[in-house]
Amino acid sequence: VTALAPPVVPGRAAPASSGARSGSVSWMALPALVVFVGFGVIPLIGVLALSFTSWDGLGAIHPSGTQSWRSVLTDPGLPHALWVTFEVMALSWLVQTPISILIGVFLAGHQRYRELLAVLYFVPLLLSSAAIAITYKALLDPNFGLGAGLHIPLLAQDWLGKSHLALGVVIFVVSWQFIPFHSLIYQGGVRQIPRSMYEAAEIDGAGRIRRFFSITLPQLKYTIITSSTLILIGSLTFFDLIFVLTAGGPGDATRVLALDMYKRGFQANLMGPASAIAVILVLVGLGLALLLRRLGGRDQSESQLEGA
Amino acid sequence: MATTVGTGTGPVTETRAGQEPRDGRSARHYNWLGGLVGWLWLAVVLVPIYWIIITSFKTQSNYFTMNPLAPATSPTLDNYRLVIASNFTRYFINSVVVTVGAVVPAVLAAFMAAFAIVRAGGTRWFLRSVNSLFLMGLAIPLQATIIPVYLIIIRLHLYDTLLAIILPSIAFAIPLSVLVLSNFIRDVPKELFESMRMDGASEWGTLWHLAFPLTRPAMVTVTIYNGLTIWNGFLLPLVLTQSPDQRTLPLALWTFQGQFSVNVPAIAACVLLTALPILILYAVGRRQLLSGLTAGFGK
Predict the structure, then answer these.
(1) CA–CA separation, A21 and A23 (whole Å)
(2) Structure pTM?
(3) Half-sphere exposure of residue A292, counting CA atoms within 13 Å on the CB side?
(4) Which tens digits make up the pLDDT trace of A285-300?
(5) Cα separation of A162 and A173, whole Å?
(6) CA A143 to mean position of chain CA atoms
(7) By Cβ atoms counted within 10 A, which residue in A47, B64, B71, B261 is the most buried?
(8) Nearest CB neighbour to A31, from listed B109, B120, B168
(9) How far is B299 from chain A (nearest CA, A)?
(10) Residues A101 and A188: beta-carbon distance below 8 Å
């Protein structure tokens, strides 16, 4: 770690040593605030403003009223992109959640080899989405990939060339990348469940499956909410992976919102409509976050450890 | 967040606090379904990784003729030579510059902000609104702001520089870092802050001499998390740079793949070389991460 010296911030002049409880700490938030406002908040406002302009990414920016919005909202590409985004979101949740819970419960045991498993599980998380996408692209090649090499026709399909298969591949690769992470979250969650609950259930004669559904699953409620939030919000941001793996194709079978924004903006040079898509992306993200918060926050007062 | 703080009075061992006694049940009743899924998924995780490793040592003709899951009969390092000859070192240095240049300021700024937010304890409207601003930042897919970020970078005449990647990376890293660090600082007993104040320490002194050492485990976690995200970042380099000299590793990997599309062994070597530094750091850093999580502030 280098350069621990603080940046010189105006306003630091307030006497820092006096007993004023917190009078002198406000300025400490400034460096973070300035950068976040500059490259987070202003762009967020800017994207709304740009959606009412026309700009090719190079020349001058001209106000153009609601033209971008009209072209985006009447484009059949928008409902399609929204639908694909939703499909990716829903399917990756459906695949990842049950598998992650099962693996998490399994990993929560304390045998030494399970620790080793956890070490290996973590590896996909270290790789960049670009590296993962490129690996799978080569692996799934219909002529020279794994299926062709092993002479298994079932595996040697044109995975990325057929619409319905390509979407499945995207879901699979996303799961490959993130199931380990969610398993680790569940592992942590399971380890927090008081053992006394299981002992009590065992005395009452509850079987293994019964215990899973009456203790483990309800106790994991907040872990499930956390993990699901990460999966759902995260699936809005699968850009790199899909961009490298399929580039939205074949046709526009895997063209999710984020990709739609990029292609309109940086490939078709239509920054106005692309900004309109970006605004929609923000709204979807905010709506989702609010929805999940309502679902999760409803009975936060109720004790998680009731009966422990 | 599994943060077991305040237990590490004894010798810091590899085992997590409270690990042994909890879970005797799995020894008595083996979880067959979980075990099956667990081992199966391990195979699913490992097959592509194994394949990429063995493929990177094959010659191109070898690759087309051999069983894809059999290791190379006559391993070659030519693929690695080809990748390194394709300006790999340059991209590697770029990635290091971007990652270090973004993570260090991001974590320090987030730490200071988190400290201020916790110390104010919701009494100042300014820090309260800063906090809610950061929390809002968590809910927004920040990629959506890429077009205005691109515009700002052009106007600042930073387009096609590494600084163009660094600045937005810092901004995107701040919300989560502040959240994690402030949760952690909140766990520091109030009495410690009080006694620092009694001793006449300034808030600035308290920040570095009390909060910094006590939150080190969380700082390590946040640093590793952000470092990984930025090292693997693709969209910002893709949009904000243009010339080959400014490429970071993920972007270089992508262009390399476009260039050598049929030479799968070379691509495999390139994938491995871009991941290798992180894998090495993981081997070293995981231990640090774990002991960091258990090492508390005994006294």
Answers:
(1) 6
(2) 0.82
(3) 20
(4) 888 888 887 876 544 4
(5) 16
(6) 32
(7) A47
(8) B109
(9) 25
(10) no
